Amino acid sequence: MSLPSPLTSKQIINRCDPSSFSFRTTEELGATTTIAGQERAVQAIEFSIGMKRDGFNLFALGPSGTGKQTAIEDYLHKRSAGEAVPDDWCYVYNFEKPRQPLGLSMPPGRGCELAKDMDKLVEGLFSVIPAAFSSEEYQEQEKAIKEELQGRQSSALEEIEKKAADHDIAVIRTPSGFAFAPVRKGEVLKSEEFMRLKPEEREKIEREIAGLKESMQAMMMQIPKWQRESQEKFKELNQQVAGFAIKPLLGEIASRYNALEPVQTYLERVEQDIIDNFEQFLQKDDEMQEMLPFQASSAFRGRKSHAFHRYRINVLVDNSSTEGAPVIFEDKPSCQNLLGDIEHMSQMGTLVTDFTLIKAGALHKANGGYLVLDARRLLMEPLAWEALKKAIRTRQIRIESLAQLYSLVSTISLEPEPQPLDIKVVLLGERQLYYLLSAYDPDFGELFKVAADFDDDMQ
């Protein structure tokens, strides 16, 4: 068998004459790059993304190197550019049920605006509220309430003293309370002198003293009631003063969100909570700086400032810089990365959390748009596949602490309000994986009704 003859240089080189082209560089051509030879797969992608119905999510199947991810991302980016930007999603403190933070949906960019407004509000309250409670008008009204209470007590006591004087009995103030003693010629009788009186006169005096003691006891029983009434007046006065002090600040914020009814409702609850807890803003300057370091980026932090956390806004998803619908590719689709997580921090040996430690997942970031996942990596993550199916089926994102859910820790956790889910999920995987899911997972066919088959053989 003879060996093949070697190739010549002309046979292995195809030279092109640049003068034969009508352009200088390929950039002048303006053509777009498209996937070649995958027409049926592209049609399936267009059908799945265009079908706005439940269950029409996409599974792109085929061997590696056929351009699945490139074709899908290219199509999604082009389509999402002309779609509406989804709303921001925030979590706020639930004043009625602190363990169940409330969700707020706001137009893109308004979430961060509200968060900054609330930070400025709390900062302003530390100067406005102390000024209101140190005003002369408040001091006069407070003094009037105290004098009213003292006047009622004095009047009742004077009435008893007058009644006692009419019967020649003196009211004596002692360290342990009040005592009664008979009087003769302007002087209190001693025990020996009282015992020398006639029995009839002693009995009469004892009956009169017994009646006076009953009157005194009745008056003493009225004092707690008068004190409670005064405390109610103090409370009403304090709430009025606090309300007048904070209304201009809250009114300014509320005017910026007139069209957002949930925000208006939230601000009303904030106003009532500040009025009910105005004492926390009556701090000294050194205590205020320790409790609320606004100049630092870690505002509201610290154990003592925990009370002010409830006025913060946790902006979970900020779409202020998003253009069109989001397209998210999650490279590590774990359960926490998909659904979000509730973090904890250690304080004095105890794990604690609050709504500001709720973190967003890929479903939050892609909500209103598209989420692309590698199917094999998704199935390798514990509980992630079931969590994703549950979110798609219920059309909501429910953040749950896995450690708490499976009793791995005994700390108290949160139950954030679920976020409504409007998303299109795209899975990328091998053919064998697609057929295995189709055969053994009854939910798969209902949730991923469209398959884009990328062929490895082309004409």
Walk me through what this model shows.
There is one protein chain. The protein has helices at residues 9-12, 39-50, 68-80, 110-133, 136-166, 191-195, 199-255, 261-276, 285-291, 335-339, 362-366, 375-380, 384-394, 402-405, 431-440, 444-447; strands at residues 58-61, 88-92, 102-106, 169-174, 177-184, 187-188, 314-317, 327-330, 341-342, 345-347, 350-352, 358-359, 370-374, 396-397, 419-420, 424-429, 450-453. It is α/β, with parallel strands linked by helices. The strands form six sheets. It has a five-stranded parallel β-sheet. Strands 3-2-7 form a three-stranded antiparallel β-sheet, with helices on one face. It has a three-stranded antiparallel β-sheet with strand order 4-5-6. Helix 2 packs across helix 3 (68-80), helix 4 (110-133) runs antiparallel to helix 7 and helix 5 runs antiparallel to helix 7. The longest helix is centred in the middle third of the chain and has 57 residues, at 199-255. The two termini are 34 Å apart.
